[in-house]
Amino acid sequence: MAPEPKPLGKIAGLLLDVGGVLYQGDEAIAGSAEALTALREREMPFRLLTNTTRTTRASLAKRLQGLGFEVTEEEIVTPASVASAILERDGARPHLLVHPGLLPDCPEEAAGPNAVLVGDAGEHFTFENMNRAFNVLIEGGTLYALGRNRFFRSASGFELDAGPFVAALEYAAETEAVLIGKPSKDFFVTAAHDMGFAPEETLMVGDDLESDVEGAIAAGLQAALVRTGKFRDGDATRARKGGARVAASLSEFVEGLVA
Amino acid sequence: MAPEPKPLGKIAGLLLDVGGVLYQGDEAIAGSAEALTALREREMPFRLLTNTTRTTRASLAKRLQGLGFEVTEEEIVTPASVASAILERDGARPHLLVHPGLLPDCPEEAAGPNAVLVGDAGEHFTFENMNRAFNVLIEGGTLYALGRNRFFRSASGFELDAGPFVAALEYAAETEAVLIGKPSKDFFVTAAHDMGFAPEETLMVGDDLESDVEGAIAAGLQAALVRTGKFRDGDATRARKGGARVAASLSEFVEGLVA
User: Fold this and answer.
1) What digits encode the pLDDT tens for the residues A42-83?
2) Which positions 146-185 of B are in contact with A (Cβ < 8 Å)?
3) pLDDT in tens, B195-254
4) Are B171 and A169 within 8 A, CB to CB?
5) What is the C-alpha separation between A130 and B220, in angstroms, rounded?
């Protein structure tokens, strides 16, 4: 392996991306379940950090358990689960435009809203709901977005994700959304604080060069890129240049860490 | 009045904006109905050029007749009414995402669409309809927009216009919409051709400095700004600098023209 460009800092805790790091499609990535167990045995704190905006932490935990991962709901950090803390810090009282299935993880709908929180609302992106959100924004409300992904592939073709509707509201209200999910700095830092650690003693492991690795480093964390999931040739060189570690998989990364 | 900065070209035909030039709110602007009659008596051809994307030419004609204007449906040019010609020129077979009430003016829905035509669809901007449009775009389809206004005031508050949903589809498909309404060059030129005239012998009269006046001049037409409708102080100076005429109203403009 090529030498690392920077000496490694102390690592007090880890943030682990989920899709492409723990599992791929409907299967666990080889060695990743054992890697989580190894972290637990060595008492290395971690959180699973994922941008999902339609699945609750509870159902994601259940899904991961079904794939053989020993995880609890409380170890999962999603944009919805940190939204309360971020909105409270900003004094924002949100009107919610999210999928009803995500409500258990979201802040409460506020009575006199001065903000809008948009997630991947799916078929709940009706004209009426979009107008309701817009009327909060046009009165000076702040727009928060759980994510701004463009689309995903579903059984019936391509389906629009939250991003286009965030763009619609930005255009309508001539504003720019505050992004809560990766790669926003707040998201990484809040997850590190959740373990009681400063950003610089926390390391993010992900398969997405921009969102996971470069995002974490920009937020003051350490980072490692794994060659699973959406990893593409060329990513490793750019990741190392940016000061990140590179490992074949989560399993290999954890082996190197606890050796 | 200040002297005109440029000698006037020959004027063979006129394009007249509707809202703010012919009427304001629910009333005809003083002298504007008489001005249309005067143009007709002097055999000066004209078309009414408006960006409306929810009203058919037929119902707009009826409304104007109710306000005392002597006009026919055929004299009204809207983005929907020129869309057929523009899409045909481009070899575009559209999937329509417009308000059903506008269908009489629109091109036909195509069987194997390679384009999407978006208007102010109102409550028909459902998630399902947005996905359907997106699936045409993601296969390489071209996006056409009848307009890209942000919003308008309705009885129930502010309502989103076509613009935000055009922005959503642009963001999702990483594309840029072809605008059919004002201030697109195509719109002015098509309307001039509809009277059988070249752009440079056609003059646009409007109350909107950017959309009507500067748009028309950029398209090679002559233009005149009227001090009715949305006219604001400062517009006149900028209009004259750009080579436009300025008149107190359509009535005054027509008097000067036919004198």
Assistant:
1) 999 999 999 887 889 999 999 999 999 999 999 999 999 999
2) 150-151, 156-160, 163-165, 167-172, 174
3) 999 999 999 999 999 999 999 999 999 999 999 998 998 999 999 999 999 999 999 999
4) no
5) 38
Q: How many Å apart are CA B128 and CA B107, to the nearest integer?
A: 22
- Provide the b/e sequence for A146-159 (b: ≥16 CB within 10 Å): bbbbbbeeeeeebb
Nearest to B172 among A131, A150, A171 (CB): A150
Q: Are strands A142-145 and A115-118 parallel, antiparallel or unpaired?
A: parallel
Residue A18 CA: distances (Å) to CA of A32, A91, A181, A205, A207 = 10, 31, 14, 9, 9
The answer for A58, left when phi > 0, alpha when psi is -120 to 50, beta otherwise, is alpha
pTM: 0.86
Tokens of B45: 């051809």
Chain B residues close to A163, C-beta within 8 Å: 171-172
Write the DSSP assignment of B27-67 as a string of letters. EEPTTHHHHHHHHHHTT--EEEE---SSS-HHHHHHHHHHT
Distance CA A196, CA A202 (A): 10
What's the sign of the alpha-carbon dihedral A60, A66, A70, A72?
A: positive
Q: Mention every residue, 6+ apart, whose C-beta is less than 8 A from residue B253.
A: B35, B205, B224, B226, B245, B247
Q: Residue A66 burial by CB count (10 A; 0-12/13-18/19+): exposed, middle or buried?
A: exposed
- CA-nearest residue to A168 within chain B is B164
Give the torsion through C-alpha atoms of A200, A202, A205, A211, to 10 deg.
-50
Distance in angstroms (rounded) separating the CA atoms of residues A223 and A216: 6
Three-state SS for A118? strand
The closest CB to that of A171, out of B123, B130, B150, belongs to B150
Query: ipTM of the assembly?
Result: 0.85
Q: Is B145 on the interface with A (CB under 8 A)?
A: no
Cβ atoms of residues A232 and A203 within 8 Å? no
Interface touch B123/A122, C-beta < 8 Å: no
Q: If residue B225 lies in a helix (H) or strand (E), which one and from where to where?
A: strand B222-226
Cβ-defined contact of A171 to B163 (cutoff 8 Å): yes
Please write the tens of the pLDDT for every residue from B101-139. 999 999 999 999 999 999 999 999 999 999 999 999 999
B32/B214 Cα distance (integer angstroms)? 22
Chain A: give the shortest CA distance to residue B222, in Å: 31
Integer-rounded Cα Rg, in Å, for chain A is 19
Residue A174 with chain B: CB contacts under 8 Å: 150
Type and span of the H or E element at B241: helix B235-241
